[in-house]
Design goal:
two-stranded antiparallel sheet; 11% helix; mainly beta; seven-stranded antiparallel β-sheet; 104 residues; 1 helix
């Protein structure tokens, strides 16, 4: 069950960078982590994660997004489980995953 406020729509679009969103998570209050420049200074807070897949592709993508679902980074993974683990490893906050279109 999700803990998102009932009157807020934090769900991402159906696709991010041309890949279909399968799972997503969003934290409107605290970023999951802070992207940093090479020198270690903070760059951008990441409030959204999505696990995506391009049609016909074997790989899954862990996508890191800002608060408006703009893609800031992605990484490819052999399975959904690996992509979820990659997000969990990055996050400093608990992640509640949602299935696109409905709650898990």
């Amino acid at each position: 069950m999700s803990n998102l406020p009932k009157n807020e729509n934090f769900e991402p679009p159906d696709e991010l960078d041309g890949a279909e969103v399968i799972l997503w998570a969003y934290n409107p209050e605290k970023p999951f982590f802070m992207m940093q420049y090479v020198d270690g200074t903070d760059y951008k807070p990441i409030h959204g994660f999505a696990i995506c897949r391009c049609k016909g592709a074997e790989l899954f993508y862990k996508v890191s997004c800002d608060s408006a679902w703009n893609v800031e980074n992605d990484s490819d993974h052999a399975s959904i489980e690996d992509a979820v683990k990659a997000a969990n490893d990055l996050s400093k906050e608990p992640i509640t995953w949602n299935k696109k279109g409905s709650l898990i």
